[in-house]
Amino acid sequence: MPDPSTYRPATGTIPDAPGVYKFRDPGRRVIYVGKAKSLRSRLNSYFADVSALHPRTRQMVTTAGSVEWTVVGTEVEALQLEYNWIKEFDPRFNVRYRDDKTYPVLAVTLNEEYPRLHVYRGPRRKGVRYFGPYAHAWAIRETLDLLLRVFPARTCSAGVFKRHGQIGRPCLLGYIDKCSAPCVGRVSAEEHRGIVEDFCDFLAGKTDHLVRRLEREMAEASDELLFERAARLRDDAGALRRAMEKQAVVLGDGTDADVVAFAHDDLEAAVQVFHVRGGRVRGQRGWVVDRLEEGGEEGAGNPVTALVDQFLSQFYGDQAAMDDGSAGEGAESSPVPREVLVPELPDDAASIQDWLSGLRGARVALRVPQRGDKRALMETVERNAKEAFTQHKLRRAGDLTARSAALQELQDHLGLDSAPLRIECVDISHIQGSDVVASLVVFEDGLARKSEYRRFAIREAATEGDVAAIAEVTRRRFARHAGESAEQADPRPGIDPETGKPKRFAYPPNLYVVDGALPQAEAAAAVLSELGITDVAVVGLAKRLEEVWLPGDPDPAILPRTSEALYLLQRVRDEAHRFAITYHRQKRSKRLTASALDDVPGLGQTRKSVLIKHFGSLKRLRAASVEEIESVPGIGPGTARAVHTALAGGTQDTTAAGGQERQQ
Q1: What is the mean pLDDT of residues 187-202?
Q2: Are the C-beta atoms of residues 364 and 337 closer than 8 Å to each other?
Q3: In 48-71, which positions are buried (b, 16+ CB within 10 angstroms) versus exposed (e)?
Q4: Contacts from 158-161 at CB under 8 Å and sequence distance 24+?
Q5: Which of 304, 305, 307, 547 could be a cystine partner for 542, CB 3.0 to 4.6 Å?
Q6: How far apart are CA 505 and CA 483, in angstroms?
Q7: Which of 60-69, 350-359, 539-548, 623-632 has the lowest mean pLDDT?
Q8: Domains of the chain listed by start with CATH number
C-alpha cells in the first residue's frame, strides 16, 4: 500500500490559485478528481494527518501513488474542467450520481408538419419540446390516455402515419376520436398544430383558461340545443380536471424548480430530487452513493455542502450533455430549471450559479428556501430522502457487510498484503477435448463487472489438456501488460499515450483464481513468474471439496463452510463457469450445424442457412419429413431426400454429451 508521504509535493511547489487536481494510483490510473479555490490549501490537507481523514478519503490517499494539478483562471473554469475529467476518466473514488435506469419524458415534435406526442428517452433534439422527466413510462401513457380525448393529436410513428395516409383510412384512435386523423385530412396542418399547442399549454401549467374555455363552449352548445356536443365538452372538462388532480399544485406561483435534499451517515448519502414545472411535481429521482469528504477547510464543517457541490456539478453537467443546446424553446426547454432549491449553499455557490446559468442560457437562482410553500416542499423532499436512505440500509446491510467481510477474510486466509479489491477468475470448458474455450470474469469490490469479461478460444493448448489451457489463457491475458511494462519502460504504464485513457486490461488483478487444484494453480503461477509479474496472488479452487490451493504449498487451505470468503470465491468461480459454458455451447452449436450438413451433395452454404432459418434449429430440421424439407424454397426433391438421409443417419441427440460438460 503506497505511503502518502512518498508522493507528497515539495513545500511551496503547489500554487495558491484555483484549479483541478488528479490523484493517480501506481499504475497511473486516475482514481480521484477534485477542484479547489486554493490548490495549496486543499492538497496540503490531504497529507497533514492521514489518520484524521474520513475513512474513504484515507483509503483514496493510501491507494494513490501520485498527484498532479492544473491551474485555471476562475472557479467556473475549475468546475467545468472537473466535470469533464470525471466524465472522461470515471475515477473510482468520485461520487457518481448515475441512475439505474433512463427516465422517460413526453416529447412533442414541433419540428414536424404534423407534430407527434410520444414517450422518449435519450438526448434532446432540436425543435422538440419535452415534458418530464416522469418516474415511469406508464405515467406518461396514462396522462396521454386522459388528455387525448380533449387534445386528439397524432401519437403514431412516421411509418404508420404514412401508411394510413396512403390507404385513406385512419387508425383505431381516429375511429374512437382520440386522434384528429390528420393523415386522412380530417384536420389541416394548422388545425392540428393548434391542438398540439393547446396540449403543450396545458402541460406547461396554463390549465385554468383551457377549462374555462371548455365550460364556455359547453354553455354555448347547450344554449343552441346542441346537447351531444355539450355533453362531449362536459366530459372533456372532466378529463382535464382528473388530469390536474393527478399532478397537484405544490407551488402556487407556477414556479419551475428542482428541489434537492439529502440524508447521510459517515459512509453513504441518499439524495432525492423533485422536479417542479409550472408549480406541479412532474418527476422524482433518487440515488444512494458513497461519501468521500474532500480535504481542506471547504466543506469540512458541514458535510451537506460538499454533497450539494458534487451533486450540482455532476447532475446538471450530465443533463446538459444530453441536450444539443437547441432543443425547443430556448431556456424554457432547458434541463436546468429557473431555480434550484438546496438544503445548504456550497462554499462556491456563486461560481456554481454562474455555471448553471451558462448551461441554461438564462439566469438560474441557487438558494435555500426559508419559509412558505417552498420550505414545506423542501421538508417533504427531506422526508423522502430519509425514508429512501432507511430502506437502502435495510436492503443492503447484510450484502454490504458480507462483501466487506469476504474481502477481509480472503486477505487474512491467503496472507495478502491488502484486500483483493479486483479478482479475476479463469475457467476452461469443453467436451472430451473438442471446442476448447475459456472464460475470464472480473469482480471488483465483491461485485461482478461484466463489461470487463473476456472469452478465449484455446489455440496452441487445445489438445494438451486443461493445465496447458490455463497456462495459455494466463499468458494471453498478461502478455500485453507485462510486455509494455518491461520493454517500453513507459513512465505511464497502462495509459494510452495518444488519448491519455487507460488501456483495456492494462491493470492486473489483486487475486487471480483458476478453477482446479494444485496443477492448475502452479501452471498459472509459472506463467506469471515467467512474465516477471510478482504482484498478483494466484489460487486454485477445487470443486470436489472446495479446497483452496496455493502454488508451492502441498496442502490446501480449507476455508470454513460458513466463510464469506469461500462464498465469494464460489460465486466468482460459478460465474466463470456459466460464462465459459455459454461460449462453449455457441461454438459447439455452430460446429454441429455445419458438420451435419457438410456431406450432403449439392448443398452449399446458402441453402444450409436457408434450411436452418426455416426450421429454426438443427433438431427441428432432423425431425422434419422429406415433404417438409422439400417445401423450403430452393430445395428440390433430390436434395430434400439427401438432407433427410444424412440427418437420419447421424447422431440422434447432440445434447446427450451435455452432461459431460465439465469445468476444469
Answers
A1: 87
A2: yes
A3: eeeeebbebbebbbebbbebebee
A4: 161/114, 161/116
A5: 547
A6: 13
A7: 539-548
A8: 4-89 (3.40.1440.10), 105-206 (no CATH), 257-389 (3.30.420), 420-574 (3.30.420.340), 599-663 (1.10.150.20)
C-alpha cell belonging to residue 275: 422536479
* Distance (Å, whole) CA 275 – CA 205: 14
What mean pLDDT is reported for the chain?
78
pLDDT digits (tens, 9 = 90+) for 613-642: 787 777 777 788 888 888 888 888 888 888
Cell numbers at 483, concatenated = 510486455
Unique residue bearing C-alpha cell 434450411: 611
One DSSP character per residue, 98-154 reads: --SSPPPEEEE-TTSSS-BEEEE-SS--TT-EEE---S-HHHHHHHHHHHTTTS--B
What does the pLDDT look like over 311-326, one tens digit per residue? 888 888 777 665 544 4
pLDDT of residue 664: 35
Cα 360 from Cα 366, distance rounded (Å): 13
Give me 264's grid cell: 447521510
Kindly give, in sequence order, each residue whose CB lies less than 8 Å from that of residue 518, ignoring residues fewer than 6 positions away: 540, 549, 551, 553, 554, 556
Give the global pTM. Answer: 0.46
Closest CA to 524 of 556, 549, 489: 549
